[in-house]
Amino acid sequence: MSRVAIIFKIYPKEGKIEEAMQDIKSKLSPAAIQEFEVAFGIKIIKARFVFEDKNTKSSILEEQLKSINGVNEVEVEEESLI
After folding, report:
1. Distance CA 37, CA 28 (A)
2. What's residue 57's pLDDT?
3. For the chain, give me the number of helices (H) and strands (E)?
4. What own/partner pairs with CB < 8 Å and gap ≥ 24 does 37-43 have?
5. Sequence-ordered list of residues with C-beta below 8 angstroms from that of 6, at least 6 positions apart, any chain
6. Running DSSP on this structure, what letter comes out for residue 31?
7. Among 2, 68, 69, 75, which is most exposed with the fewest C-beta within 10 angstroms?
8. pTM for the full model?
9. Given phi > 0 = left and psi -120 to 50 = alpha, else beta, which region is 41?
10. Is domain 3-81 given the CATH code 3.40.1190.20 in the classification?
11. Are 10 and 74 in contact (CB under 8 A)?
12. pLDDT of residue 56
């Protein structure tokens, strides 16, 4: 069975980046999570998830990320089979 890796760009609400990162780590257990400054103090979060192709769909993960307190918007940056 193939595995899927997906990277999400997560746009936190202003001043909520640390809270959002902690909630994502504790509730969804990403394979990797990192904070990036995009411009003039604006920061985003990138989170990578790896799972079996049949077990989870990216749309389910996206909805779970959107429901995290402090998250404003979520978009898929990259999705691939590994």
Report:
1. 23
2. 77
3. 2, 4
4. 43/12, 43/17
5. 48, 49, 50, 58, 61, 76, 78, 79, 80
6. S
7. 2
8. 0.90
9. left
10. no
11. yes
12. 66
Tokens representing 58?
Answer: 């990216």
Segments in the chain below pLDDT 70: 55-56
Q: What's residue 55's pLDDT?
A: 65
CA 55 to chain centre: 17
Provide the 8-state DSSP code for 43. E
Q: Could you give the CA distance from residue 12 to residue 17 in angstroms, rounded to a whole number?
A: 5
Q: Where are the domains of the chain?
A: 3-81
Q: What is the pLDDT of residue 23?
A: 96
Q: Compute CA distances 49 → 16, 46, 52, 65, 81, whole Å.
A: 21, 10, 10, 12, 12
Residue 11 tokens read as 């746009």
| End-to-end Cα spacing for the chain | 10
